[in-house]
Amino acid sequence: MATERTVSAGKYHIELGKRNELNTKIISQAATDLVPLIENDELKAAVQRAIEYISRYLDRGEVVDGVILGCTHYSLLVGELRVCFPDITFFAQTEVIPSKLQMYLGKHDEIKSKLTTGGTLDTFLTGKKYIERE
């Protein structure tokens, strides 16, 4: 499940296809309406919509073993989705990327040595709404 742009680029099919030893069927589902819902702090509606996307496949008798939440926004839904679908493995980018980056940097000292630590963080948000949370 990803944005329209990510799905149309076919990146997950390409990358997962390289390592598809089990000959697993990979389905890409554009879920373009989730980002606006999440950015407008409508998480319950976003979770419900994600449930509808997944249920559509289950209702047709498809076996869904795993769902990649292919947008960083979608990581906000992972907890609720795991409760609703305990037999499905969910892969959230916010859980996968940091450890993969750390592993990669551990193997590439030439890159790690060029990085600095103790810097500042600038955050840029999409959309017009900004919500400050404690």
Q: Helix amount, in percent? A: 40-55%
Tell me about the largest β-sheet.
2 strands, parallel
* Rg calculated over all Cα atoms: 17 Å
Number of strands: 2
Shape: globular
Please give the order of strands in the largest beta sheet: 1-2
> How many domains is the backbone divided into?
1
Overall average residue pLDDT: 86
Write up this protein.
With 134 residues, the protein is mainly alpha-helical. It has a single domain (4-97), classed as 3-Layer(aba) Sandwich (Rossmann fold), CATH 3.40.50. 47% of the residues lie in helices and 6% in strands. The chain contains seven helices and two strands, in the order ααααβαβαα. Strand 1, helix 5 (78-84) and strand 2 form a beta-alpha-beta unit. The protein is globular, with a radius of gyration of 17 Å.
What attributes does this structure have?
Rossmann fold; single chain; mainly alpha; 7 helices; 47% helix; 6% strand; 134 residues; two-stranded parallel ribbon
